[in-house]
Amino acid sequence: MTQEERHTRYSELINEHRRLMVDFCMVKARFDAVEMSRLVHECNIELWTHIEKIRKGATKAEQAAWVVLRCRNAVRRYRRQNKVSTLPIEVVGDDDLCVVDGDERNALIDILSEGLTSHERQIVELVRGGYSSKEIANLLGIKPASVDVERSRIIGKMRQRAEKWNGHIE
User: Fold this and answer.
1) Measuring CA to CA, which residue among 68, 70, 38 is closest to residue 53?
2) CA 112, 114, 119, 122: dihedral to nearest 10 degrees?
3) What is the largest CA-CA distance in the chain?
4) From the candidate CATH numbers 1.10.150, 1.10.760, 1.10.1740, 1.10.10, the one assigned to the domain spanning 1-83
5) Residue 94 has what pLDDT?
6) Which of 45, 78, 83, 164 is 20 to 30 A from residue 72's alpha carbon, by CA?
7) Across-strand partners of 96?
8) Which long-range contacts (CB under 8 A, 24 or more apart) does 105-108 make?
9) How many angstroms from the chain centroid is the CA of residue 2?
10) Per-domain residue ranges for the chain?
């Protein structure tokens, strides 16, 4: 791929999915503008570095899923390099995970989603980004009912993982 082709594909991808990337980074940065700016920068580097891996002629949904995965990788690498903790979690009583919000909720979702497939993690990230089932379905090229079924399965898997995990802590 020539530098010009690379630049063209990157520009098209960013123009089409900028909102998705920024929303993803905003959620991961927990609405901290400075952190979000750093994450957007890291995501741009990740996308530029791997732009040749996105299939030419990929659908908008395939591109969106690829952008989410690349951004997730960029955020993880950034946090590892900067030793940012993502584990502020509280677990309380009788096999129940406490209801937490903000940073703790996001960290809990990160941990519980580790056992999910890449497709399920894409859905989790889009839900966390505030996208509705209909919007997710449009992005991924599937029916909204399929998204609802996937969400139910994801919740079940996360609940099982939480119960198993909680049992090991006590």
Assistant:
1) 70
2) 70
3) 59
4) 1.10.1740
5) 32
6) 164
7) 92
8) 106/27, 106/28, 106/30
9) 30
10) 1-83, 85-170
